[in-house]
Amino acid sequence: MSAPESVIEIGSTGVRLLVAEITPDRKQNILDRSDNPLPIGKDVFTSGAISQETQNQCIQILKRYKEQLAGWGITPDKAICIATSAFRDSKNCDPVMDRILVQTGFRVKIVDGIEENKLMYLAVSDCLKDQPVDFKNDNTLILNVGGSSTEIMMMSGGKMAGVHSLRLGTVRIEHQIGGQIASYHDIRRYVEESINNTKESLETELNFSDVNQFIAVGQDMNLAALLVGHPISTFLWEIDIERFHEFRREVQDYSVDEMVGRFRISYSEAETLQVSLLIYQLFLNLTKATKIIVPETNIRHGIILNKNPAQNELLQDEYNMQILASAKNLLRKYHGDQNHAECVRMIAVKIFDCLKDEISLEEHAKMLLEIAALLHDVGVFIKFAHHNFHSAYIIQNSDIFGLTKREISIVAEISKYHRGSQMPQDEENFLMMPRSDRMLILKLTAILRIADAMDRGHIQTFNDISVKLQQNALLITTKNSKNPVLERIALQEKAGMFESVFGYNVILV
Predict the structure, then answer these.
(1) Where does residue 218 fall: left (phi above 0), alpha (psi -120 to 50 degrees), or beta otherwise?
(2) In 3D, which of 337, 386, 361, 379 has the Cα closest to residue 446?
């Protein structure tokens, strides 16, 4: 049995603790959990900052959690403490994080919306593992409505089609319409218009009318599942959509006090329940799903899974496949040359693997290289001239499943310099990056330039390539008899950066 792991999540409406362990059969065994309401979202959406009173409450909660974790032998430096969208949007998040560290010992890490999607995917996949629910071959919508944002994952035929973090959350909506709209009918109209404003953009990746499986995650859906659903397994529920609609209509007639009394939930949960259920229903109405799948899980479970990849190798392999699927979907969206992109990706991976003993990069770096190889030419959609800069712009402003904003920026930089004479070192912004990021970009860009040169004509001249190091040279050997003149010229143009970074001459045999 592994040692207990702990995660604290500072969200828009509360601070939540999970303590769990990974069992020998690779399952999570929940040992302890706590949930304390905290109005961070209200503060941020009202004044833009976390109030002094809320800071004090947060620190008191964390001090109690510190004592609770001590009973499991977990010290603050061993616990993972994350903060999500509302905390992230506050003007004073940095001093608040520092105050938390000084007074409690917990070091807060802020996660962005796309990283939340990644963690939620891991948690949902693990919850559905070995269950009679298969979302690998369906068109699936995974929805998580929070206080500050709504996280969406769209899967087509089991492959990731799109990920988005919409600024559509229950607390955010309450602030935006507070004092101006009183009736539930007007709230519904407001939410409907917000969804319709984003629907067209989302449907460039997957038509909602093609979605036949709807997976809903979150505390409010857990409550609905408990009251009107039926269990599939211990942590998995199913709700018939008619039963859900009836429940939602029933809840809309209750006051906050009545919801607190009937459902035995906190006042803060009751305040947002009606809007939360409404958002789930309006998205559900866009699909042809006949039931709602509700996994009782959250991003805290995903963090523990992400921290223990060796315990879930199959899950991690599936997760990596979904990252590439998301990048390939972005490539299709901008009408990229898929054959060229795949050819460059394949060659880049071979070069990376050849250098693995001395490249001094984590395995995840190869994933960033693969994504850059797939997307390096998407800028042609805007204009061929200087398309590497257009590619960087598109990547920087896109959501790619599984990548943080920092990693997306790194991929954009790699793509920016895959061609042309300008080098990363020529830009002041590059020189201001941490040294580890600068070296990562230089190494992966050098590899991408060689891989791209090997398909200069975009006709996949070589169908069998091997790469090996020999003395001071990187030998690229092909078994194809086609004339490689274009590739030799391209290598002469692009090999300089590789030779400078790695110290090897590039020779095409």
Answers:
(1) left
(2) 361
Question: What does the alpha-carbon distance between residue 77 and residue 98 come to, in Å, rounded to a whole number?
Answer: 14
Query: What are the distances in angstroms from CA 177 to CA 346, 351, 492?
Result: 51, 55, 61
Of 330, 294, 352, the C-alpha closest to 402 is 330
- Dist CA 303 CA 28 (whole Å): 12
Tell which residue, 497, 348, 360, 499, has the closest CA to residue 425.
497
Q: What is the pLDDT of residue 182?
A: 57
Q: Please classify residue 192 by burial: count the beta carbons closer than 10 Å to its beta carbon, then call 0-12 exposed, 13-18 middle and 19+ buried.
A: middle
Q: Which of 254, 47, 273, 13 is nearest to 148 (CA)?
A: 13
E strand or H helix that includes residue 474: strand 473-478
pLDDT for position 178: 64
H or E element that contains 250: helix 241-252
Beta bridge partners, 21, equal: 29
The number of CA neighbours under 13 Å toward the Cβ of 481 is 0
pLDDT of residue 75: 95
pLDDT in the model for residue 313:
60
Average pLDDT by consecutive 10-residue portion of the chain (509 residues)?
Answer: 86 92 77 92 90 96 96 94 89 95 95 82 86 77 90 87 84 72 75 87 86 93 95 93 95 92 89 92 94 93 78 66 89 91 92 85 88 93 90 91 88 89 78 87 91 80 79 80 74 82 81
Residue closest to 440 by CA, chosen among 337, 360, 379, 332: 360
Asked if 90 and 40 count as a contact pair (C-beta separation under 8 A), the reply is yes
Sheet with 150-156: strands ordered across: 159-166, 150-156, 140-145, 213-217, 291-295, 236-240, 230-233
**3-state secondary structure (DSSP) of residue 54:** helix
Q: Encoding tokens for residue 31?
A: 């040992």
Please tell me the distance from the alpha carbon of residue 7 to that of residue 49, in angstroms, as a whole number. Answer: 24
CA distance 163 to 506: 39
Residue 180 backbone zone (phi > 0: left; psi -120 to 50: alpha; other: beta): alpha
Tens-place pLDDT, residues 419-456: 877 778 778 788 888 888 899 999 999 999 988 888 87
